[in-house]
């Protein structure tokens, strides 16, 4: 009986690998298990190796595992590429069609089942994925009924005949595995422990962001499709019209961001979402938002770069771009959710902060958080609050002979001016991207420039979120580990493998507020740590260097990076932490 196991399916892109994983994992979610998935796919519509790695557990999981237990192979390449990941005694379920072989040096069992042949007998070779799911269910001693219910849910719109054919394919796969089960002497070795039986949310980070945007009051989204952000746009296309909202697919990212600025200026909450190449095109307009003090929310789902780079692979290399990319100085906030659940709440925070401080807010995600599907506790909608700051929504009472323009950018102690929605009586003012006076009238005088610059930058002088980071551990530690976005979950698991009585106290900080950097709040943890380790997925250690800029004890800081396009695994971080502890022991 296993508390958790990993199941991976692989084949050629376009032959149903994603749907195979979706049906299998969604059924297990309905049975009450916790799930975490990672999709490896190519930047093309069809062809090229793809796989879906799904971790199933009786307890919460926030990363892929070190190895896999079961590999479902629709072609030989899947075996060649992925079999080395199998645990000792692992199982390969392979389609007989391609005459599968496996390296004899691996201590794994190859089970050959005619997936394609069985599927063809039921009317279409496309149903080989159902045969594979049936075989997997028998291997794991899972009941067939929940899978049949899932098939009915997915295919009933195509008619009862299609549903029945898929049911038959599922059953025949189950029976084919059953014939081989006893002779393999598995003896329940792939049975899962009992789940809590509670179905949870099962979603990708992009859906959590989309749902957060809807609950934040967004009613307009202009965007241009790009991996891995497109699902946010697709979510909004599906749901926003039901609320009277609109989504526009623009001609490019420049149009998207300027439309978002215009909509926010008009008083309607709006945002756009993109990835690194799109954000590069938006930089001038982000500056426009800062100069005109117009709220703006942009979601950046990071991927491998530069240029087109690795559009379908994991990386966290846009951090410097998001903080320093615009020309000139503007106040700006950069946030990073700690996990998929937090992505919902952080999205709402982003809109509230953008309107309260009248600044651009960038919500960072990465490919793994955006597209990796995982279970989450239901979102607590009672936590949702809308804060529009100093937005004026009603006519402004003024003396009849007062014909002066409204001081939209008037000075204030906190640097935040009142913001009337266009069309209000008494609120007329200029809006321009050049330097301007308090009424918005262009002005290039030295005195005005200094006053307005200081006014804008004063907004975030003392800005810190109520929870700028999530912390697990004490202020005084033998090792402080700092991470962000999808690295959080895998780092947390790796840290949990160490015995405090043996290695000492390890504290884990998961940063949420990346800019302005929460130096003062983080300082006690930095100062209280004997060693500091920053873990991230980029070549140049961008987060590590930002921490160094804000803390003086560089000698106790270490960096661990990965930039080959694949997510960290827990054992990689575990091994590196262990090397630090051994070095410390030697010293």
Automatic annotation (TrEMBL):
SUPFAM superfamilies reported for this sequence: Pyruvate-ferredoxin oxidoreductase, PFOR, domain III, Thiamin diphosphate-binding fold (THDP-binding), TK C-terminal domain-like
NCBIfam families the UniProt entry points to: OAFO_sf
Organism, scientific name: Lacicoccus qingdaonensis
Protein name as catalogued: 2-oxoglutarate ferredoxin oxidoreductase subunit alpha
Keyword Oxidoreductase set for record: yes
UniProt cross-references to Gene3D superfamilies, sorted A to Z: 3.40.50.920, 3.40.50.970, Pyruvate-ferredoxin oxidoreductase, PFOR, domain III (3.40.920.10)
Record domain Pyruvate/ketoisovalerate oxidoreductase catalytic: where: 14-175
Lineage, broadest ranks: Bacteria, Bacillati, Bacillota, Bacilli, Bacillales
Cited Pfam families: POR, POR_N
PANTHER family, per database record: 2-OXOGLUTARATE OXIDOREDUCTASE SUBUNIT KORA, PYRUVATE-FLAVODOXIN OXIDOREDUCTASE-RELATED
Gene Ontology molecular function terms on file: oxidoreductase activity, acting on the aldehyde or oxo group of donors
Stored InterPro entries: 2-oxoacid/accept_OxRdtase_asu, Pyruvate:ferred/Flavod_OxRd, Pyrv/ketoisovalerate_OxRed_cat, Pyrv_Fd/Flavodoxin_OxRdtase_N, Pyrv_flavodox_OxRed_cen, THDP-binding, Transketo_C/PFOR_II
Gene Ontology biological-process entries: response to oxidative stress
Domain Pyruvate flavodoxin/ferredoxin oxidoreductase pyrimidine binding positions: 212-454
This protein's UniProt keywords: Oxidoreductase
């Amino acid at each position: 009986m296993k508390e958790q196991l990993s199941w991976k399916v692989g084949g050629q892109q376009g032959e149903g690998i994603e749907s195979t994983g979706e049906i299998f994992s969604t059924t297990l979610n309905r049975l009450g298990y916790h799930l975490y998935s990672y999709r490896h796919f190519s930047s093309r519509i069809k062809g090229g190796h793809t796989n879906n790695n799904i971790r199933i557990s009786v307890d919460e999981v926030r990363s892929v595992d070190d190895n896999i237990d079961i590999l479902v192979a629709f072609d030989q390449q899947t075996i060649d590429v992925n079999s080395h990941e199998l645990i000792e005694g692992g199982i390969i379920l392979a389609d007989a069609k391609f005459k599968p072989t496996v390296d004899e040096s691996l201590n794994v069992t190859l089970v050959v089942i005619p997936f394609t042949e069985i599927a063809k007998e039921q009317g279409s070779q496309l149903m080989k994925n159902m045969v594979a799911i049936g075989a997997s269910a028998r291997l794991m001693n899972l009941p067939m009924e929940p899978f049949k219910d899932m098939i009915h849910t997915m295919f009933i719109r195509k008619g009862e005949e299609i549903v029945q054919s898929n049911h038959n394919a599922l059953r025949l796969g189950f029976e084919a595995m059953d014939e081989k089960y006893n002779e393999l002497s598995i003896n329940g070795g792939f049975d899962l422990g009992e789940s809590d039986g509670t179905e949870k949310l099962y979603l990708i980070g992009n859906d959590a962001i989309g749902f957060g945007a809807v609950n934040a009051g967004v009613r307009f989204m202009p965007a241009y499709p790009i991996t891995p952000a497109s699902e946010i746009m697709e979510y909004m296309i599906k749901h926003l019209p039901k609320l009277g909202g609109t989504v526009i697919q623009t001609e490019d990212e420049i149009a998207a961001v300027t439309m978002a600025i215009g909509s926010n200026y008009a008083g309607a909450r709006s945002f756009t979402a993109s990835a690194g190449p799109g954000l590069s095109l938006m930089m001038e307009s982000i500056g426009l938002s800062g100069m005109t003090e117009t709220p703006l929310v942009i979601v950046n789902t990071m991927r491998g770069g530069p240029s087109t780079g690795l559009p379908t692979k994991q990386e966290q290399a846009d951090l410097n771009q998001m903080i320093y990319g615009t020309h000139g100085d503007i106040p700006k906030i950069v946030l990073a959710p700690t996990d998929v659940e937090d992505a919902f709440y952080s999205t709402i925070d982003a809109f509230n902060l953008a309107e309260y401080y009248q600044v651009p807010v960038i919500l960072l995600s990465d490919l793994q958080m955006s597209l990796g599907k995982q279970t989450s506790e239901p979102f607590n909608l009672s936590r949702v609050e809308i804060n529009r700051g100093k937005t004026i929504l009603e006519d402004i009472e003024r003396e009849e002979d007062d014909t002066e323009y409204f001081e939209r950018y008037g000075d204030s102690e906190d640097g935040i001016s009142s913001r009337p929605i266009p069309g209000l009586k008494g609120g007329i003012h200029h809006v321009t991207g050049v330097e301007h006076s308090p009424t918005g009238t262009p002005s290039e005088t030295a005195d005005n420039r200094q006053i307005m610059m200081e006014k804008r930058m004063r907004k975030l002088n003392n800005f810190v979120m109520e929870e700028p980071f999530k912390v697990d551990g004490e202020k005084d530690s033998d090792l402080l580990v700092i991470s962000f976005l999808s690295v959080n979950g895998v780092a947390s698991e790796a840290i949990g493998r160490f015995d405090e009585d043996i290695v000492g106290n390890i504290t884990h900080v998961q940063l949420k507020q990346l800019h302005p950097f929460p130096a003062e709040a983080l300082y006690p943890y930095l100062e209280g740590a004997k060693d500091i380790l920053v873990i991230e997925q980029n070549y140049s250690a961008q987060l590590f260097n930002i921490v160094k800029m804000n803390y003086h004890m560089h000698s106790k800081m270490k960096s661990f990076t990965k930039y080959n396009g694949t997510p960290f695994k827990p054992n990689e971080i575990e091994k590196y932490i262990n090397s630090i502890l051994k070095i410390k022991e030697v010293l």
